[in-house]
Design brief:
10 strands; globular; 2 domains; Rossmann fold; alpha/beta; four-stranded antiparallel β-sheet
């Protein structure tokens, strides 16, 4: 599919409740191809639940999720790879006990076609797929300056590099939409700029990026559109500058009584 044909991510009317607690209520948003859409909001706003619904780890009560116009089956995370949707998590999710190269190769391998029987007996197609996945992984490691870490166990890496490996593994899937759930969580401020460049590079390659993040400096520096969740609902949305000065957003984060002239700088 060419870049011009990509529609990116579309979420329409998504709601989710746990018992009597309404976590998401009629959430609608878009993350168009080739752009970065950020989702922000105070703790408990429903951001992580939204990420889990989009990526199929949680089944919504109502609403739909679309990638490039195709509706994704609710609550089926495994089907997302076939629709070229990638996801990172708040907590570091890497395959410990495996090298950096093999971590990234797992992303490339997930998009290849094979058979369960072929995988079990390691037939010619399986061996060819493994070689191609490793070649693709090495190329990505070179691109992101991680080639020297290829043979290192991933758990031996500094936290910032391990987070980058997780993102590179997602890119190895050749996704058309990615959901980044607080990628800057736990990173020192000095690591934010390389992370921002990586995320911006995703959009430049035509990927639709949905960025869920608490780091306001990161959000405001690279996002083209910002959606604000509060108590499970879309409070407002707009450009970073518009959202940063919106008194409703300031009140949601900081509480009532703050001057309307303040800007959100958390």
């Amino acid at each position: 599919m060419s870049t011009s044909e990509r529609q990116g991510l579309r979420v329409t009317g998504v709601s989710k409740a746990y018992g009597g607690l309404q976590v998401l209520k009629d959430v609608t948003l878009r993350a168009p191809a080739g752009s970065i859409t950020a989702v922000i909001g105070p703790n408990g706003a429903g951001k992580s639940t939204l990420a889990n619904v989009i990526s199929g780890f949680v089944t919504q009560d109502a609403g739909q999720v679309f990638v490039n116009g195709a509706e994704l089956p609710a609550g089926k995370a495994v089907a997302r790879a076939g629709h070229r949707l990638g996801r990172t998590f708040q907590n570091l999710e890497v395959f410990t006990g495996m090298t950096v190269l093999h971590n990234v190769a797992m992303g490339a391998y997930s998009r290849q076609k094979g058979s369960h029987l072929g995988d079990l007996i390691r037939g010619p197609r399986t061996r060819r797929n493994e070689r191609e996945a490793e070649e693709s992984a090495r190329a990505l490691l070179r691109k992101f300056g991680l080639e020297h870490r290829a043979d290192s166990l991933v758990e031996s890496l500094p936290f910032g590099e391990a987070k980058l490996v997780e993102m590179v593994r997602v890119l190895a899937m050749e996704p058309e939409v990615v959901v980044l759930d607080e990628p800057a969580a736990g990173l020192p401020p000095a690591s934010a700029m390389p992370l921002a460049e990586t995320i911006a590079g995703m959009a430049q390659e035509g990927i639709g990026v949905l960025l869920i993040e608490h780091n306001m400096k990161l959000v405001m520096s690279i996002s083209e559109h910002v959606v604000v969740l509060d108590q499970g609902r879309v409070l407002t949305e707009g450009s970073p500058a518009e959202v940063q000065k919106d008194p409703r957003v300031i009140e949601a984060y900081l509480g009532p009584g703050h001057a309307k002239s303040e800007e959100l700088t958390l």
